[in-house]
Amino acid sequence: MFKKNDFDNLIDRKNSRSEKWDSTEEMFKVKDLLPLWIADMDFKNAPLILQALNQKINHGIMGYSIFPDSYYESTINWFYRRYNWKIEKNSIIYTPGAMMGLSIAIQAFTNEKDKIILQDPIYPPFYSIIRSNKRKKVLNSLKLENNHYEIDFNDLKKKVILDNVKMIIFCNPHNPTGRVWRKEEIEQLGDICIDENLLVISDEINCDLVFPEYKFISFASISKKFEENSITCTSPSKGFNLSGIPLANIIIPSSELKTKFNVMKQKYGILDNNSLGSIALETAYNKCEDWLDDLKKYIKENLEFLKKFLVSNIPEVKVINPEATYLVWLDFRGLNYNNQTLERILMNEAKVLLWNGIHFGKSGKGFRRINIACPRLTLEKALNRIKDALRKNIR
Ligand SMILES: Cc1ncc(COP(=O)(O)O)c(C=O)c1O
């Protein structure tokens, strides 16, 4: 069976077609960068997933595939067992990735120039998907108080009544702040959206990475009204590190919304065809719960390591304590560097690639997102590089 210390294994991902490891040198023109940015993990997949995929590959034929009943059953059971959310089989719609699902939803339910609310700082591709679909973003920036992000409900109420605001992209758990929204927060947001006729796209693809002290509640699971006014993006890709096999299930309980979504999905020519993805999902949801729980323990230990390291060595850099995920939002503002100087120190001197906060919106200025889903030795190496580079620059 799976051994806990497998997460410590240093696996060389260079020359493995990894975006994180193989694209950075060309993109940033810096050699030997340690990439702690894109959200995938430097850990080997769960052994049972690899075994199931190998079995399919060894069968030897990669023809068109179907999603059998067992695919839907494993999805339904997973969300009920773990999150007490009852999903009907006919609410589950496959798309090759959550961003594809989001883009289809934007096209199916809004028109050009319509406004869509984002709660920044937020996952950068949300901005580009709104822009490329010729919609307009409206920001309901999160409030940062005592190192903790909260929704600004007064501001949200003001924004939802603007002309042509049709949709909100709600991110739970929130990337990059790591917030797992509490039931009261989700209820308040959902009620405002129903009152003002705003459709909620709830991106929940990080839900499997919520730490045990916090409770994940799916937006749609709150009430029938919320269910009917929402589209939820789910995927095993984050929790089980399967992003290279694009796969998402978009959950749409309302039959009216489902029909519109499917019409748009058909326009893209998307077929329900992904043999490796469907096998990986079923194996993950049916057989890899223990692996996921061990993974979260390891990530939590990495988080503690990161916090201790910063307190002892770079106390000016503050950790925004995440309630979920391996993405940690770091507040570098205490160092008083401008963006360019900090980027030079981190990228060119420390040679550590963190995701620059400015890409998450203006509210991300002075922040960086670090990905701690790596063996502890890699994390330690990156932090030491940052510490040494900052020391050299002390003014
Ligand atoms: C909140 C969120 N949504 C969507 C995605 C991308 O999902 P996909 O690769 O399935 O399009 C990510 C990836 O990190 C994410 O964090």
Helix/strand layout:
Elements: H1 19-22, H2 24-28, E1 34-35, H3 47-59, H4 69-83, E2 92-95, H5 98-109, E3 115-118, H6 125-132, E4 136-139, E5 143-145, E6 148-150, H7 153-160, E7 165-171, H8 183-195, E8 199-203, H9 224-228, E9 230-234, E10 248-251, H10 255-267, H11 275-287, H12 289-313, E11 318-320, E12 327-331, H13 339-349, E13 352-353, E14 355-356, E15 367-371, H14 376-392
Helix pairs in contact: 3-11, 4-11, 5-6, 5-10, 7-8, 12-14
* Proper CATH architecture of the largest domain: 3-Layer(aba) Sandwich
- Decide which structural class fits the backbone: alpha/beta
Mean pLDDT: 96
Largest sheet: spatial strand order: 2-10-9-8-7-3-4
CATH superfamily grouping of the largest domain: Type I PLP-dependent aspartate aminotransferase-like (Major domain)
Oligomer: single chain
| Distance separating the two termini | 52 Å
| Biggest sheet details | 7 strands, mixed
Q: Helical percent range?
A: 40-55%
Bound molecules: pyridoxal-5'-phosphate
Radius of gyration, CA atoms, in whole angstroms = 21 Å
What proportion strand? 5-15%
Work out the number of β strands.
Answer: 15
CATH topology of the largest domain: Aspartate Aminotransferase, domain 2
Give the count of helical stretches: 14
- How many domain modules? 2
**Uncertain segments:** none
CATH class division of the largest domain: Alpha Beta
Order of helices and strands: HHEHHEHEHEEEHEHEHEEHHHEEHEEEH
* Shape, per Cα inertia axes: globular
